From TrEMBL:
The keyword Oxidoreductase does not apply. InterPro entries: aa-tRNA-synth_II/BPL/LPL (IPR045864), Biotin_CoA_COase_ligase (IPR004408), BPL_C (IPR003142), BPL_LPL_catalytic (IPR004143). Signal peptide: none annotated. This is biotin--[biotin carboxyl-carrier protein] ligase. One of its GO terms (molecular function) is biotin--[biotin carboxyl-carrier protein] ligase activity. It comes from the Bacteria. Keywords: Biotin, Ligase. Its EC number is 6.3.4.15. Pfam families: BPL_C, BPL_LplA_LipB. It catalyses: biotin + L-lysyl-[protein] + ATP = N(6)-biotinyl-L-lysyl-[protein] + AMP + diphosphate + H(+). Residues 1-181 form the BPL/LPL catalytic domain. The keyword Glycosyltransferase does not apply. PROSITE patterns: BPL_LPL_CATALYTIC.
Length: 247
């Protein structure tokens, strides 16, 4: 682990985010990676089940930054870029690995990793702890996922040990967090857009309230996603799932 960062390995837990929340309740001060061999109740965004058999990386970073809730817009994109960089460092083909808004990493257009960021101990606008949950499909992937999924073994043809992946990931995350300036989103915005899936292509946008077709434009300055509707009107979306569109 990077200097000043701890790690806790658990053979099986309900979810690493839940374990991190329990640690946060006892006011853990040192940044800590919680890693599980398997999860019995792994979850993704919007409470979706995250299939969590052995061989993949299931981990959460718990840390207590001096930040406000309003400072966190860039964090999901920093983490996504760190995961993308980790796949590349482990031998993945750079051009095949992309970021998908808001918090997924794709390999050849299929989901290979996801991020779930939660907070603990929020008082007003001040954050107590941040929990960054990460799942990386190293060895296997679900067949019934809403968005088609894949795994790193299918991409490079060799197994990667989850602890090896964590070592690379932890270094990449720390490097990016150390460089992070919450008042300057532009470098994050540009790098994420450079590696984004679907830019300039037709997609289907699905939210709780509506489903519509659009073309992806770029990441907005506040973390939303700029799209162009079929009538030419531009719009920024903040809560939705993106799927390939049809010409």
């Amino acid at each position: 682990m990077p200097e000043g960062v701890g790690a806790r390995f658990i053979p099986v837990c309900d979810s690493t985010n839940e374990e991190a929340a329990r640690l946060a309740s006892i006011k853990s001060a040192q940044p800590m990676w919680i890693v599980a061999g398997e999860q019995s109740k792994g979850r993704g965004r919007s409470g979706r089940n995250w299939v969590s058999g052995s061989g993949n990386l299931y981990t959460s970073l718990l840390f207590a930054p001096d930040l406000k809730l309003s400072d966190l817009a860039g964090l999901p994109f920093i983490i996504s870029l760190a995961i993308r960089e980790t796949f590349v460092t482990l031998g993945g083909l750079d051009g095949d690995i992309q970021c998908k808004w808001p918090n997924d990493i794709l390999i050849n257009g299929k989901k290979a990793a996801g991020v779930l960021i939660e907070t603990s101990g929020v008082v007003g606008n001040t954050v107590g702890h941040i929990i960054v949950g990460i799942g990386m499909n190293l060895l296997h992937s679900p067949d019934t996922a809403q968005f088609p999924a894949t795994n790193f073994f299918a991409h490079i043809g060799k197994k990667v040990d989850p602890r090896e992946a964590l070592t690379v990931l932890a270094a990449n995350v720390k490097k990016r967090l150390d460089k992070w300036r919450v008042s300057d989103f532009k470098p994050i915005q540009q790098e994420w857009t450079d590696h984004a899936w679907g830019i300039g292509k037709p997609v289907q946008v699905r939210s709780i309230d509506e489903t519509f077709s659009a073309t992806l434009l770029h990441l907005a300055e506040d973390g939303g996603l700029k799209v162009k509707l079929v009538n030419g009107v531009e719009r920024t979306i903040y809560a939705a799932d993106i799927f390939p569109g049809f010409k």
